[in-house]
Amino acid sequence: MTRRDFLKVAGTSSIALGAVAATGCSLNKSNTNDTTLDVEGGKMEYRTNSRNGDKVSLLGFGCMRWPMITGKNGEKDKIDQDAVNKLVDFAYKHGVNYYDTSPAYLQGQSETAAGIALSRYPRKSYYIATKLSNFNTWDKDASLRMYHDSFEQLRTDYFDYYLLHAIGGGGVDVFNKRYVDNGLMDFLMKEREAGRIRNLGFSFHGTQDAFDYFIALNDKYHWDFVQIEMNYQDWQHAQAPDNVNADYLYEQIDKLGLPIVAMEPLLGGRLVNVPANIADKLKEREPQNSIASWAFRFVGSYPRVLTALSGMESMGPLEDNLNTFRHFKPLNADEIKLLKDLADIMDKNPTIPCNYCKYCMPCPYGVNIPEIFKHYNRAINEGFKAESKEQADYQKLRRKYLISYDRAIESLRQANHCIGCHQCEPHCPQTIKIPTELKRIDNYIEKLKRGTLEA
Amino acid sequence: MLRKIRIALAAICFVLITMLFLDFTGTLHTWLGWLAKIQFLPAVLALNLAVIVALVLLTLIMGRVYCSVICPLGVFQDIISWFGGKKKERKLRFSYSPEKKWLRYGVFVLFVLAIIFGVNAFVALLAPYSAYGRIASNIFAPIYQWGNNLCAYIAQRADSYAFYSKDVWLKSLPIFIISAVTLVALAILAWRNGRTYCNTICPVGTTLSFFSRFAAFRPMIDSNKCKNCHICERKCKAACINIKEHKIDYSRCVDCFDCLNNCKFGAMHYRFAYGKKESTPKDAPVQTVKDNVDSSRRAFLTSSAIIATALTVGAQEKKLDGGLATIIDKKKPQRKYVLTPFGSKSIKEFYDHCTACQLCISVCPNEVLRPSESLEHLMQPEMTYERGYCRPECTKCSQVCPAGAILPISPEEKTAIHIGTAIVDLDLCVANKDGISCGNCARHCPAGAIRMLRKNMDDPESVRIPTVIEDRCIGCGACENLCPARPYSAIHVEGLQEHRQDELS
């Protein structure tokens, strides 16, 4: 750990502790050995946006992973509005006031559902964040239509936080085509002046060069906030070379003094389903707290973080997160070091950095890409990926791997049906070489089936 | 006692053979495969002399115990017949009927001619082991698999890997119908008249009857003790005891030993037939016996009505999850020559030996084998790659075949056998047609027979299209099955009339 880290963390902790003490909230709760979650007790942790005084809940609701039900066409592709209302009601009543959506989420249904759920509450009592997700059409008119549609879907006449969605993918060139050359940036700045956009920022996935470029654009565009992928794994182990470590991003934004919205605090669930040896380390220290709570507390321990987004698709994670944020306790320097050490260990773990965002889908050849990666990662994390047929428990592992693979993915959608057309690859925010990885998994399975797996 | 031993042995044989057809994992075959190999017709077609001699000797010594113990179709009829006799008024439902010689020997002659001239469908239709295999794999196996899938469903929720689910699919509608007809017809015959099929139609029964007439040991009537009560006759499912004349038709007796137990006067004995002479029958009042109506033909007709209800069982299609592209089912290409399994030497040899028992189809884990619907090979298996391909590590069908139609091979030998050759149809190929980089066929070819070559020789950036090195292709169908073109694959395998085998280095 560098001195800089230490000072920063120490500073963070004392600030956060001060903040908690100032709100008069009791910290005793998280020290009790109570296994049931206490979402009624405690008090939601709020962060103040230093630029405009917004009081934002440190837990933000990400609207990308809401529950789906079977629609008219017999496929599970219709949003479950009742379940969404229930989730939003519960979150709202327990202090969550930041809701992050996009016209692209859930095949375009996320904004509508969020609009229905939120419009039942006074507009001033919550913050809406949405995005200009013009991935496929860079045409100005189509993009403007998307912008205006968002007002209608979300039943509002202003956005609290508005983002250029996932810039960095494809580099500066694509950014210019999506937002600059077609005049959208000028338009959005005017909208901000008109008050229809209260905060203008961007979400970022990409290389360091691109990020530096966007940060430099602050002189021109005066960003109000930045949304970055931030968690204890990405802190120093982002997927090189196409992603930047979060510690670097944090430092650059910190220099500008901008608020940070942290996305993927759980890395799409990968920091929940951690390998057993990692889980042991965390449970040893706090048996009653969830694995996820550590990841949220890591993000929340950094003072620039305005809110940490979590895509809660059911009551279980929602209650767990409320428990974490209503009894919020920042990590101390020692705990932060522990997480960074664990991240070092996990970095050597050959899981595929898929966050299950499904941007790659649908594959034109029917391959179920996210499910294949999820299964593969699960096999690694749960230790049932055989390494060699000489292994003592090879037969058992082989059986478990193959059976669970068939259970998770129907045979026509398995990795051997990837033809390598590369349509998916540019869509992956994690810049996973999808066809290459699918081929690797397919080869592995082929070796398992043929009994030719050598160490 | 003899009867109890017979029942116990028959039950064991029957359950184990049935399990052979139900066990889709193929693990039982290592232990129980011999049960299929001691069946009469498969042994004849495999020219398995040891088994044939043993079975003939067994019959010469003990009579047709084969029919009561080893033959699964015989035992199956006994089970149905046993249920048929549960009701009190049906306890004494049989009676002696004379041998139907013209039918019995007529069918037998036709059967032998059918074997000689290769009318395989006729052989498969009548042969008892084939008929039972057909019923087991078409009717019983799906039920077993649904049960298995239920277990798999529960196991999945319990995070156990003890069971895995298996697709239940209709391999062929016509064959399913034939199986159902066979099942219903036999069940009706057995329910009403016991062993009618075995003693009038079954060619194996007729063959064994030539020897059982001279069996050393047989059930015999002691005329001195017999009170002519007709109980034995009324309980003889083979209808072969003629109490009126104190005679037993040994060509039809299947040695079930029911008569021994049913005689209250100790007049029935299973004993050596060539010892001292029995005393002549003494005159005794004869009880009247109701004439037995041979209802077999009528039964055949009525059965067809019942079958219709059984047909509602259809293929199960899996539902799609949201956000996934629809996948069109593959369609079977027109193959000039049919594909027969690795180890079957040639198309002709395969179909000459095959009894159409469906055992290989039952164990094929890759859903490649299915009964043929062509008139020439009706019910006999053929390979096709719409649902899977013949995986390199699998040799299950060759291990289970009792008839020598598929000879045992090892996975190493399999790599050196060529059963067909892949042919590319560039009009359907996505690489050629749409310029999409693909090569899924080449990537999955276990023989390295497919090369992706530049479409335009002069352009180094040109899209690559598949070509087949015919000599290397073994015909496994990985390319055909995994080809993204649907419903017709852009690459398909044509069968080889004579399979080719490389020298193993």
The side-by-side strand order for the widest beta sheet of chain B comes to 1-4
Strand content of chain A: 5-15%
The CATH class designation of the largest domain in chain A is Alpha Beta
**SS content category of chain B:** mainly alpha
Give structural notes.
The complex is a heterodimer of chains A (455) and B (505). Chain A is α/β, with parallel strands linked by helices. Chain A contains 17 helices and 12 strands. Chain A has 2 domains: 345 residues, TIM Barrel (Alpha-Beta Barrel); 82 residues, no CATH class. Chain A is 44% helix and 12% strand. In chain A, helix 2 packs across helix 3. About 5% of the residues of chain A have low confidence. The longest helix of chain B has 30 residues. Chain B folds into 2 domains: 271 residues, no CATH class; 155 residues, Alpha-Beta Plaits, CATH 3.30.70. In chain B, helix 6 packs across helix 10, helix 7 crosses helix 8 and helix 10 crosses helix 15. In chain B, strands 1-4 form a two-stranded antiparallel sheet. A two-stranded antiparallel ribbon of chain B has the order 2-3. Chains A and B meet through helix 16 and helix 17 of A and helix 21 of B.
